[in-house]
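Work Package 3 (structural annotation) set out to generate three-dimensional models for the target panel prioritized at the project kickoff. During this period the team completed the workflow that converts sequence records into discrete structure tokens, so that structures can be stored uniformly alongside our sequence database. As a representative example, we reproduce one entry of 393 residues exactly as it appears in the project archive.
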Amino acid sequence: MNPAAQSSEFQVVVIGLAMTPVDEHWDLSLRQLGVDAMRRALAEAGGVLPQAVYVGNMLAPALSGQTHLGALLADFAALRGAEAATFEAAGASGGAAFRQACLAIWSGVVESALVVGVEKMTDRVGSSVDAALAMTTDADFEAVQGMTPVAQAALRMRRYLHSYGTPDDALAGFPMTAHANALTNPLAMFHRSIDLKDYRQAPMVSPPVNLYDAAPWADGAAAVVLIRSDRVPPGLLAAQVRVVGSAVATAPLALHDQPDLLDLAAGRLSAGKAFAQAGLSPADVDVLELHDVFSIDAAVALEAAGFAQPGEGWRLAAEGEIGRDGRIPVSTFGGSKARGEVGGATGVYQIAETVLQLQGRAGANQVANARIGMAQCLGGAGATAVTHLLEAA
């Protein structure tokens, strides 16, 4: 059943958002990034004071030496007394936090909530970062053997190229599209287009994953304000976007426990549930923010969600169908590949970018006639998938 349909009186709507530039913010702390996004999102929400604060973060304990982010950020954002908690689901942390906010409002427990995703990746370099990222794998059976997320991606990408007999550069369309979209996103980390020659000449990171197949780790924070539709301040009625589908699903964490490395089971399940809740299908989606930390993630995510048949996801990128003027515009602000990958904050950036599209506020990145948006983020090698569907009011 659609959670939004559980009450005939109200829906969950987004009324405020903010994003910091994605970059190497050596001069800003985790706290400063998060609070900046929170304050600006609240200002856009017309002074609404949220009853709850939900934080999405992946690696603050390992890289910033900080836990208890809910209380910390609520305190410094002048929200003392509010309910506050942190949610961790690896790269799906921001999406998980947004999901909890939706559930809290749908349940009637709270009327308004603020979701903030924040990550600080660049204060440390080298092996300490690799060790922290390896924590998203199975510690007992993968991390202890030296497995890292990029190594997981390499295994999955090699399997994809072999199983479907695709060209070696089959996935080039994903980073090429992302970089093209980031050119006009002032918050993106990279403002440089790439072509097929660039992709083919890129150095290998973990074969067959090359430099352009892997998103850069960066710092950033994004925040959104949610409220019951019957509590929206009058001046914000025209700008609201409602949540019409929300679902989370899980799959085995370790690669060796996954029955099929190319079947993104959690992505398929969460997308299916969200579509069923909303009474929609992939054909209804006008704009899609998907998980593209690695090119292989984008290909299998498109296939799992029903936008392409197994082994055909790469063709959508190769044939230009995912560009801003294509059949299903993807990563319209550059995605993790060119906007920059911000770990636990990624899911909230996706929501904020989708809302801008549905409000017609995406500027040079605007997709024409966008009414339905989908945002899906993944944790680990697809062990967690969080899918949200949003609709312009």
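Confidence is low (pLDDT under 50) at residues 4-8.
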